[in-house]
Amino acid sequence: MAKDAELDRLKVAQDRAFQRKQDAYQAQQKAWDRRSSARDALNSAHETKQRAYAEQDRTWQDYQNVRSSNGPRIDSLNAQQEQAYENMRRSYDAASSAYDRRDGASASSYAAEGRRYKEEAQHHVAERRRLVEEIRSARANHEASKPAFQRAKDDFSAAKRIFDSAKAEHERAQIEFKRAKVEFDSCVKAFKARLEKVKAEDQKRRNDKKDIATKAGVPYRYRDNVWVSTDSNGNTNIYFGGVGKPNGPGHGHYVMDRSGKVTYKRDPYDPHGAQNFTDQDGNRGATLYDRRARSGKEPKGAEGIFARRDGGREHVTQYYDDKYRLSSDIVDNANVKRHWTNQNFKKKHPDRHTPPKDDTN
Question: Residue ranges per domain, the chain?
Answer without folding.
Answer: 5-195, 224-342
